[in-house]
Structure formats: C-alpha cells, structure tokens
C-alpha cells in the first residue's frame, strides 16, 4: 500500500485511505487526507494539537516534521471538506 495506518482503528483508517489516496495526489492534498483520516476516529473533531505530520522531500530524502501552523492549515481544510 502507498497509504496505510497503524495503531488503534487502523483497519478503518486504512480502508478510508485506500478509497481516497491516489498515486498522483499532491503533497498538500495528502496532508489534508492524513488529517481527515485522523479525524475519523479521534474524539477531538475540531482541534489540531493531537495531529502530528511529517513529510519526506523526495529530492533530498529528508524527513521534516510540520510545525503547528502548517498542521492547522491542513486540519482546517480537512474539517471544511469532511466526507
């Protein structure tokens, strides 16, 4: 799989990712999708402090953890476009 979840509720979240992930998804859209997948089972449906996202630059092969402002931007889009 190109998109998979681990931890509690991973079957439900992985199924969601399989339905919505595509190989040509943009990095921004993938981050929104990640936030949506967290909201599926999270008790906190509005906040973003429980969301952690890291991205890997394909050219430099380096992982970078997104800061709180970046995560809130993606989380806000996820909350706007639920479904």
* Percent range for β-strand residues: 5-15%
Q: Treating each run of at least 4 consecutive H or I residues as one helix, how many helices? A: 3
Distance between the termini: 22 Å
Rg over alpha carbons: 12 Å
Quaternary form: single chain
| Bulk shape | globular
Task: Provide the low-confidence segments as ranges.
Answer: none
| Helix/strand order, N-terminal first | HHEEH
Helix percent band: 40-55%
Find the count of extended strands (DSSP E, 2+ residues).
Answer: 2
Question: How is the biggest beta sheet arranged?
Answer: 2 strands, antiparallel
- SS-based class: mainly alpha
The average pLDDT score comes to: 88
Describe this structure in words.
- This protein is mainly α.
- The chain is built from three helices and two strands, in the order H-H-E-E-H.
- A two-stranded antiparallel ribbon has the order 1-2.
- A hairpin with a 4-residue loop joins strand 1 and strand 2.
- The two termini are 22 Å apart.
